[in-house]
Specification:
A three-stranded antiparallel beta sheet has the order 1-3-2. It is mainly alpha-helical and 118 residues long. A hairpin with a 2-residue loop joins strand 2 and strand 3. It has a domain of 68 residues: Winged helix-like DNA-binding domain superfamily/Winged helix DNA-binding domain (Arc Repressor Mutant, subunit A, Orthogonal Bundle), CATH 1.10.10.10. It is rod-shaped.
C-alpha cells in the first residue's frame, strides 16, 4: 500500500510519536513506554511513519533509534495554507462588508445640520 504524509498524521498516536521525536531521538522501547498500547501496535505506527518518510530508524549498537524527518510536513503545511488564504479572504470580505454597513448606519443616525437663519 502506498502511504502519504496525510495518512501518517491522521492517527493521534502517530502524531504524538512525531511530536516526541521532534524534540529528541528515542529508541523504540522509550517510545512504546509512553503509550497504553502493545509494543507491536507501536511498531506498526513506527513502520507507517517510516514508509511516509517522517522518521528514520538507525541502528546504534543493539538498539534501534528513531529520528524525526519533519520536512515531509511541508506538504501538509502547503495544503493547509491554501485554505488559510481562502478563509482569510472570505473573512476580510466579511469585515469590509460589516464596516460598510456600520458606516451607513452611522450616516443615518447623524443629525442633519441646518443652516442658520439670518
Amino acid at each position: 500500500m502506498r502511504r502519504d504524509v496525510f495518512q501518517a498524521i491522521a492517527d493521534p498516536t502517530r502524531r504524538e510519536i512525531i511530536n516526541m521525536l521532534a524534540h529528541k531521538q528515542l529508541n523504540l522501547n522509550a517510545i512504546a513506554e509512553n503509550f497504553d498500547v502493545s509494543r507491536p501496535a507501536i511498531s506498526k505506527h513506527i513502520k507507517i511513519l517510516v514508509e511516509c518518510g517522517l522518521i528514520i530508524i538507525s541502528q546504534q549498537g543493539r538498539e534501534r533509534h528513531c529520528e524525526a524527518k519533519l520536512q515531509k510536513l511541508i506538504e501538509v503545511s502547503d495544503w493547509i495554507e491554501q485554505y488559510r488564504q481562502f478563509w482569510n479572504k472570505k473573512l476580510d470580505a466579511l469585515e469590509n462588508y460589516l464596516n460598510q454597513l456600520q458606516a451607513k448606519e452611522k450616516n443615518k443616525t447623524k443629525p442633519k445640520k441646518h443652516g442658520k437663519k439670518k
